[in-house]
């Protein structure tokens, strides 16, 4: 389906205006040295995610999901293979150019929230806006985003003064601050109880409807996986199958 959409774009506007996928991973391998040997964590992963799609990455613990997300977010290098964001190969970029692409195009949410403990919720959300050039007031934008995630009344709280669910919502607001095209989440509900998991999932659905952002979410949560347009199952460093492609 994705292919035929792209074909349509090509025939309508010529090859130069073909719509590049939001993200494409080509033959990603990752190996690491371990006790005098090398272990192969990723063994040739291929995937394409179109703009506005919500894709879940599922599969057993240790199958390579977090490693893959780190690579597609530009936080880690593959041993070989390419990652293209909006058709641009990020694996060949120097660190400063890559940092710019990460800041402008990608929002990342980690399972353990990774907020800065000495900063307030508002300051945590402002941080990415001080990196690179962003229009408008960082504090106004941070307040708007925290209101969007239902935390307008917690602007001045530090992470220790927030529940797990609230911290994760701050992390989502931070990932959204630069208005990135792609949001990558690594088990965003993995450390949350059922009620907070449901809240975070509802927020992802609302954001998608309102902003058309592309979401790539690794999850063990069946509700999160069921909300996605399709699921990609990773087993032992390879794509095992795709489920429910629309
Ligand atoms: P998942 O997120 O699917 O649980 P990971 O990507 O975290 O899987 O890990 C995949 C495999 O790679 C696991 O066997 C893990 O132990 C191994 N691994 C991950 N990071 C490292 C590392 N820095 N050094 C050695 N092994 C690692
Ligand atoms: Mg993981």
Query: Reading side by side through the largest sheet, how are the strands ordered?
Result: 6-7-8-3-9-10
- The rough form would be described as globular
* SSE order, one letter for each helix or strand: HEEEHEEHEHHHEHEHEE
Summarize the biggest pleated sheet. Answer: 6 strands, mixed
Rounded radius of gyration (Å): 18 Å
Strand content: 25-35%
Question: How would you describe this protein?
Answer:
With 246 residues, the protein is an alpha/beta fold. The chain has a single domain (52-77, 91-243), classed as Rossmann fold, CATH 3.40.50. It is built from eight helices and ten strands. The chain has helices spanning 2-13, 65-72, 95-105, 121-130, 138-148, 164-176, 194-211, 222-227; strands at residues 23-34, 37-49, 54-58, 80-85, 88-89, 106-109, 182-186, 214-218, 230-235, 238-243. The strands form two sheets. The protein has a six-stranded mixed β-sheet, sandwiched between helices. Helix 4 (121-130) runs parallel beside helix 6 (164-176). The longest helix has 18 residues, at 194-211. Mean pLDDT is 88; it is low at 1-16. Adenosine-5'-diphosphate (ADP) is lined by residues 32, 34, 41, 61-67. The site of adenosine-5'-diphosphate (ADP) has 10 residues, from strand 1 and helix 2.
Keywords for this structure?
246 residues, binds magnesium ion, disordered N terminus, Rossmann fold, four-stranded antiparallel sheet, globular, alpha/beta, single chain, six-stranded mixed sheet
């Amino acid at each position: 389906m994705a292919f035929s959409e792209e074909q349509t774009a090509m025939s309508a506007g010529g090859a130069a205006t073909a719509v590049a996928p939001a993200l494409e991973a080509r033959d990603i391998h990752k190996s690491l040295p371990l006790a005098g040997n090398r272990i192969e964590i990723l063994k040739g992963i291929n995937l394409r995610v179109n703009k506005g799609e919500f894709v879940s990455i599922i599969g057993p613990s240790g199958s390579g999901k977090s490693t893959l997300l780190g690579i597609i977010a530009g936080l880690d290098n593959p041993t070989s293979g390419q990652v293209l964001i909006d058709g641009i190969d990020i694996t060949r970029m120097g660190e400063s150019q890559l940092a710019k692409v990460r800041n402008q195009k990608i929002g990342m949410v980690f399972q353990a929230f990774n907020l800065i403990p000495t900063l307030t919720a508002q300051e945590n959300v402002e941080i990415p806006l001080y990196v690179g050039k962003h229009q408008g007031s960082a504090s106004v934008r941070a307040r708007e985003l925290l209101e969007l995630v239902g935390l307008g009344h917690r602007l001045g709280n530090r992470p220790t003064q927030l529940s797990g669910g609230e911290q994760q919502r701050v992390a989502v607001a931070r990932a959204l601050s630069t208005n990135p095209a792609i949001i990558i989440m690594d088990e965003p509900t993995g450390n949350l109880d059922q009620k907070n998991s449901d809240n975070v999932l509802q927020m992802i659905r609302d954001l998608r409807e309102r902003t058309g952002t592309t979401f790539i979410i690794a999850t063990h949560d069946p509700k999160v996986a069921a909300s996605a347009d399709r699921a990609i199952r990773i087993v032992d460093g390879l794509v095992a199958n795709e489920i429910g492609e629309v």
